[in-house]
Amino acid sequence: MNYSTILFDLDGTLTDPKIGITSAVQYALRHFGIDVEDLDLLEPFIGPPLADSFQEFYGLSESESMKAILVYREYFSDRGLFENQVYPGIPELLTRLQAAGHTLIVATSKPTEFAERILVRFDLDQYFSFVGGSTFDGSRSLKADVIAHVRKEYGFDPASTIMIGDRKHDLIGAKEAGLPAIGVSYGYGSIAELEKEHPLAIIDTPQALEAYLLHQ
After folding, report:
1. Measuring CA to CA, which residue among 97, 96, 116, 121 is closest to residue 106?
2. How are beta strands 15-16 and 85-86 bridged, if at all?
C-alpha cells in the first residue's frame, strides 16, 4: 500500500526531547516537594499527555496535575523546548518521502505552538504540510483527538494515511481514528509496549523506516 499521507509523532519519533521534557518535569515536581534527581526516572513522561502522567506516576490530583503543567511550562517554554535533538537520519528520511510525493503531517500531543517552534528551530518545518497538536487548556490532548483535528482542519483520506510513533498512545490513537500505524523502537516505547497494539510493523531506525515506506 502506498500511503500518500504520513502522520508523524514528534517526541521520540522525529526528535529526542529527553533532556528538555524530563528537566521540565523535574522542575514541576519540585513545586510539590517531590525531588527526582535521576532524569532517567522521568522518561515515562515522554509521549503521553502530561496531565495523565502526573496523576499516574506521582499521584497528583487532577487539579494538582493542571498546576504542575503550568509550572512545567514555565521551564519548558523558555529552556526545555530546545533541549532537544533531531534523530540521525530523520532529515534524510523526510527529504526522500517528500521528494517521492508523500504529504507529511505532524500529529503530536505536545501543544501546537511548542511543536511549531521546535520544528522551526531544527529546520524540520520545511517538510510538513500541517502541524496538529494539543491545546494549552487540555481540551485536545489524546492522540485520537489530535488526528481528528488534523483530518478536520487539513483533510486526508484514511484509506491512504498511516500514523508513525514510538509509544502505545500513538498506535492506540491511530486505531481509534481508523488508521494503520507503524511503531518505531528507537524512541521511548518498549518493543513489548508496541507489540501489544499490533502495528503493521515495528521499525528500529529511520533508515529502515525509509525502506519500509518507499520500497514496500
Report:
1. 116
2. antiparallel
Q: Kindly list the structural domains of the chain, giving each domain's residue range(s) and its CATH number in brackets, ordered by start.
A: 5-16+84-215 (3.40.50.1000), 18-82 (1.10.150.240)
Q: What is the pLDDT of residues 10-61, one digit of tens each?
A: 999 999 999 999 999 999 999 999 999 999 999 999 988 899 999 999 999 9
In angstroms, the CA 134 to CA 86 distance is 21
Q: Is the pTM of this model over 0.85?
A: yes
Q: What angle do CA 124, 121, 123 make, to 5 degrees?
A: 25
Q: Could you tell me the CA-to-CA distances from 12 to 15, 31, 100 in Å, in that order?
A: 6, 26, 24
H or E segment at 71?
Answer: helix 62-76
Radius of gyration of the chain (CA): 17
Identity of the residue numbered 88: P
Burial of residue 26 (CB within 10 Å: 0-12, 13-18, 19+) is buried
Residues marked active site are found at 9
- pLDDT digit string, tens, across residues 48-99: 889 999 999 999 999 999 999 999 999 999 999 999 999 999 999 999 999 9
